[in-house]
């Protein structure tokens, strides 16, 4: 039988504590293109754990979660299989409530058969929290320690990986403009969430958020007023359209895609914390390969290169702000 024409029925052998997968032919399969090649998976999923009542509630949830992630990868080529399990559990539980599903299997059924549901679920799986000049001291450190070195390059390329809805992209553009660098800079802004990228490219944010943005801007060392960079509408602020020509927004996955080459700075803040260790290592390797010699890497305040495979390939330029320089 052709393995690609098979699917799996999972069952539990109670006397052995082992979950097995029975491979069934295509003609019986409701998911004809769904590939499950694992026959014995107890060691992989840790299915011998039980809760206080002796039931397998949590571990069954984890099993269904892994099958959901595999299905999403096979169906839509979005790879969340190496995201942090803790984060995924929380986000999937939110999706279960949103789509009125009692089990992850029910959610999986809808996601695989209804692309619109997948697009909506993607909003739960990706980082949606950001603000302009978030962690102002980080931007102040960039201005003081990185910008003077960027000024030595005739042209500059910056990669904002996992840009979400673009607040950091526009913040960097404003900072670079004030330092006289934007005219020779191209900012690549990437994310896996198409809707977030549309928001980022638009540069339009709710007016009620501007007060916080403005406070952050001044604390980050801004030399003007943030209002100099946007036009206020009814309930939104539209940022300077002239900046847009220095930005390229693109779909890119740190889990599956390759790098942008010869960039002078990579900023990937508060993204790695949602990855497991192996995916963190992959992302850091991508950043290393993308950067020019002596290029800069900025991470989130809860993220670090310490104890990673690439730790010796970078120096800590501003340790407190997690700003590194490639050696």
Task: Write the element-wise H/E pattern from the N-terminal end onward.
Answer: EEHHHHHHEHEHEHEEEEHEEE
Report the strand count: 12
Evaluate the radius of gyration: 23 Å
Query: What is the CATH level 1 assignment of the domain at 136-326?
Result: Alpha Beta
What's this, in brief?
This protein has 327 residues and is of the alpha/beta class. Helices cover 36% and strands 20% of the residues. It has a domain at 136-326: 3-Layer(aba) Sandwich (Rossmann fold).
What descriptive keywords fit this protein?
12 strands, 36% helix, seven-stranded mixed sheet, three-stranded antiparallel sheet, Rossmann fold, globular, 327 residues
Walkthrough of the structure:
The protein is α/β, with parallel strands linked by helices and 327 residues long. The protein has a domain at 136-326: Rossmann fold (3-Layer(aba) Sandwich), CATH 3.40.50.150. It contains ten helices and twelve strands. It has helices spanning 42-45, 57-76, 85-98, 104-113, 115-125, 136-150, 167-178, 194-202, 210-219, 277-290, and strands at residues 7-13, 18-24, 156-161, 185-191, 204-206, 230-232, 236-239, 247-251, 263-268, 291-299, 314-318, 323-326. The strands form three sheets. The chain has a seven-stranded mixed β-sheet. The protein is globular and about 55 Å long. The termini are far apart.
